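Office hours follow-up: a student asked to see two folded examples consecutively, so here they are.
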Amino acid sequence: MGVDEVTAPATAARVFGDRLPLAERFADMLAEHGIERGLIGPRELDRLWDRHLLNSAVIGEHIPDGVGVVDVGSGAGLPGVPLAIARPDLDIVLLEPMARRVDWLNEVVAELGLSATVIRGRAEDGVVRTEVGQHEVVTARAVAPLARLATWCLPLVRTGGSLLALKGSSAAEEIERDKLAVSRAGGGEPVLVRCGEAVLETPTVVVRIPRVAPKPSRRRGRKQ
């Protein structure tokens, strides 16, 4: 498939509204440079919209208005860039450790005029956690198994906020396998949700993990 064949499906307008031209420009950038820069695989061109752009943007269904969002391991800008396009009300941080991908993200943000901030670093790094701070929502797509993801990402989530982990068909098994590790990392009960059922042939599978308040210490002072 050539670059000129990567056209938006009719449903894209329902997701991006009057900002569809920005999404189309992002799709063009990925089609033009994504393979050579190691951002997407060579077989991804024919599914840029359904598998990547729309798949990412629809998670906005589970994000409140006007909150801060950190996209951990943003890579090619997924899901952070489509989310920033579809939801300009959000304050989005694109967190990525690899320099060449940080360069790409800065180019995308500048080209599309997005109000997103690009930070180089890893979520598990204490210095990065201090710089990024805590936000209402943290997103991650194809970054790590749920146990590790919770350990890395939940410290960036405010109490009462959520980690939204985009997952595949094994999401239910991951929840069962890793729920104890999630609890130890400060997460509440993981919930499997499907996003974009009205616009996607295959809805986006997301594991939503609430950030709960730390449990009070059970240690008691010695009686006098």
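And the second, which I mentioned at the end of office hours:
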Amino acid sequence: MPKRSGSISLTSYDDIFETDESRAEKQLERVQNISISELVPFKNHPFKVVDDEAMLRTTESVAQYGVLTPLIARPLEEGGYEIISGHRRAHAAELAGLTEVPVLVRQMDDDAATVLMVDSNLQRENILPSERAFAYKMKLEAMKHQGERGDLQIERTSRQVVDKLKSADVLGKDTGESGRQVQRYIRLTNLIPELLEMVDQKQISFNPAVELSYLAPEEQETFLAAMDEVQAAPSLSQAQRLKKLAQEGDFTLDSAREIMNEVKKGDLERVTFRNEQLRKYFPKSYTTQQMQDTILKLLDQWQKKKARDQER
């Protein structure tokens, strides 16, 4: 008698006697206490979790009252859970010495999880330009995927209505901004990290930064060198001319330096010094801010001395 090849899969006792009701119950969302060690951040999470004053306040609150609002996470095939909403709460709980946090476990695909992750974080008061830029980009891509599958539902509109709207306009409608402004934020993701950090630190304004995002990465590096030499941030007009130079293939360090050296309208009544003019008076280790603070301190001392001399 010939042997039958292949393995036989046996159904477990629990599976045999599992009812439809118990199977459905497994799919229901419910809050569970889950170990922090089993939680992992959302892939490419665009929002920064930093140990600032706000985090200190959150940590103190969690230590006293616990995590009052459950996190939202989805189970991973390889085990553990991916946080969709609640990264800051999870970090605060860990700092407070908690080992478990309440989590609403939800089955979600990548696109739906991305949309929820972005929406839940955009409710925060203080969001950096870089955070908003990458969040918009991630959500826009997820919305496009959902639209291609035909299951995109924004405010219960039909697929026909959604198709008539640009994805950026739909996203902007959710966030209270125009589709064009959404696209301008997404442009910032093309900046090299050094320039994007300057935008977050308000060393470069938003509108000039959008124009600079059209420069190739190596051109941005060159611009950064020119900016460092002249110790000045670009105006919108300067950034637009730098962009035009790049588009025409005429962008060089000299041309960038020449544009950045121009006196802006708002600077006509200012007294400015080039970096090399001041460096000889300070230790090499001094930063620009330290030089500025020292100069102001010396001017203050000079003014007080002048006032005392006049009183004599």
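Two things to take away from it. The chain has a mean pLDDT of 82. The longest strand covers residues 30-35.
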